[in-house]
Backbone:
């Protein structure tokens, strides 16, 4: 069974009410997005990037065990 | 004794590094919380030429984080006050102040005079404008941004060997977020020390880039969580769609839709219709609603009494506004009320003056 730690930043952490959670049995980044959109529909209309083990995701990948996934919205304030 | 001897003494800087810092020309866009943290450290380090861009004025609620300013400065232009203060403190720097908001038109005249840009703004329109202009002029820039207790920063578009450049903001977020998708500081609140941390990191990245020391080479985005005391770095790479959204030349830059720019200026002076109405109901005697439209423009505002005043008549009708403490300005879309806001702030630095979000077209109370 594979298990991934998800770290949420900014408005995403605020809307889901936590900065960390775990997802299990996700094989690909496409499956990851589907699961996230399903669980948190607000993500479908929000701008954010995904990083896998501290590297930004630019093309779909097969996930490996215990990878850390970060959900990265842009910040605006200053 | 030399003002810079303690940094010249550092192994990697030395006399040669200090000469690079002296020769550098840095443009700081936005003199809010981030700009207030960046500017003193750039100046103290001896950056030779510093430009300041901001069309906004100082408000009382800026003072928890904009540490250059005091109550004496309320109502004055940030760029002018910061210039006067810093010029006195650092007489050997070439200072240039631009008390305007950055636009696709004026960036063409300003940007070529600088080697590095610091983005200390509070809105996406200006941030994408800086990104796209820096891409066209091949200049690096340093992002800084805040969301509640979190901050992010990065250096973008750093020249590499063989004429290539590191990632830019559109590699992270190819398209500008929709208006109001991500709230900014005046909506969410902000603590001064966090803006200070991120602004100081921007200054540190600037000095590292200029003096060519350390590992400030781009392709990294950094996050900091103030409450959890946690840093997180993300390695960046080119986004396959980024280039299709970047302008190819100045004409394309001028045509890009940074338009919400106009409406998000003076962002801490924008109030929602609901909040404005609640404020009026609490303080009806000292609050004035001002419609800047012509009488025939629809829809009419019917929820409260209001004054009608064309922009061209404001200067001659100031007496009418004297008795009020709060002025709520509205028009069709927010452009005229934003303009009136700037004029009225000059005349009434002690009044609370707001522009209604999005104009009456955006009002859901009707």
Residues:
């Amino acid at each position: 069974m594979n298990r991934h730690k998800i770290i949420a930043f900014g408005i995403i952490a605020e809307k889901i009410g936590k900065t960390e959670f775990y997802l299990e049995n996700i094989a690909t980044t496409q499956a990851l997005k589907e699961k996230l959109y399903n669980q948190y529909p607000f993500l479908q209309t929000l701008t954010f990037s995904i990083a896998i083990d501290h590297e930004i995701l630019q093309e779909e990948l097969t996930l490996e065990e215990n990878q850390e996934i970060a959900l990265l919205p842009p910040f605006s304030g200053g | 004794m030399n003002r810079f001897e303690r940094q010249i003494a550092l192994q990697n800087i030395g006399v040669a590094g200090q000469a690079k810092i002296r020769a550098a020309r840095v443009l700081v866009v936005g003199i809010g919380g981030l700009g207030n943290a960046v500017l003193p450290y750039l100046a103290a380090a001896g950056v030779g030429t510093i430009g300041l861009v901001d069309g906004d004025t100082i408000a009382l609620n800026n003072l928890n984080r904009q540490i250059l300013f005091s109550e004496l400065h309320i109502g004055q232009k940030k760029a002018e006050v910061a210039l006067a203060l810093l010029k006195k403190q650092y007489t050997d720097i070439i200072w240039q102040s631009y008390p305007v908001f950055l636009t696709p038109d004026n960036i063409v005249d300003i940007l070529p005079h600088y080697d590095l840009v610091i983005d200390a703004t509070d809105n996406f329109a200006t941030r994408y404008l800086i990104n796209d202009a820096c891409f066209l002029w091949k200049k690096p820039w340093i992002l800084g941004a805040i969301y509640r207790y979190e901050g992010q920063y990065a250096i973008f578009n750093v020249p590499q060997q063989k004429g290539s450049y590191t990632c830019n903001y559109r590699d992270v977020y190819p398209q500008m977020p929709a208006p109001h998708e991500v709230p900014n500081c005046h909506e969410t609140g902000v603590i001064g020390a966090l803006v200070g941390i991120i602004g100081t990191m921007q200054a540190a990245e600037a000095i590292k880039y200029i003096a060519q020391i350390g590992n400030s080479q781009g392709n990294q985005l950094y996050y900091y969580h103030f409450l959890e005391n946690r840093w997180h770095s993300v390695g960046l790479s080119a986004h396959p769609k980024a280039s299709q959204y970047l302008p190819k030349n100045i004409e394309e830059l001028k045509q890009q839709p940074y338009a919400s720019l106009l409406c998000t200026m003076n962002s801490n002076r924008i109030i929602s219709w609901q909040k404005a109405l609640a404020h009026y109901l609490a303080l009806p005697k000292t609050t004035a609603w001002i419609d800047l439209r012509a009488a025939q423009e629809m829809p009419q505002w019917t929820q409260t009494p209001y004054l009608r005043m064309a922009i061209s008549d404001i200067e001659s009708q100031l007496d009418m506004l004297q008795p009020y403490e709060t002025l709520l300005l509205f028009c069709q879309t927010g452009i005229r009320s934003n303009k009136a806001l700037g004029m009225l702030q000059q005349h009434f630095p002690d009044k609370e003056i707001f522009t209604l979000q999005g104009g009456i077209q955006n009002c859901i109370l009707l």
About this structure: Chain B touches chain A through 46 residues (CB under 8 Å). DSSP finds 15 helices and 13 strands in chain B. The mean pLDDT of chain B is 91. The domain at 267-362 of chain B is CATH 3.40.250.10 (Oxidized Rhodanese; domain 1).
